[in-house]
Amino acid sequence: MHCTPLQAFQVLDTADPCAARATLIGTYGARTFEVRKNDAFNVRASFVQVGGISLSYCDYASYVSLSFPEASFVRQHICLSGEVRIHSGGHVQELTSDEWSGLIPPRMDVRYEYGAGTKQLVMWLDLQKLGSKLDALLGDGRQRSLDWSAGDGARPMAMASMRRAVEFLAVELEANAIAAAPKLGFVEIEDYIMVRFLYAHDHEQLLRLTREVRSASNAQLKRLEDYIFENWYEPLDVETMANVSGVSARSVFRHFRAVHGCTPQAFRKRIRLDRARERLLKNGPGTTVVGVALSCGFQSLGHFAREYRQTFGELPSSTLTSAARV
Question: What mean pLDDT value characterizes the chain?
Answer without folding.
Answer: 88
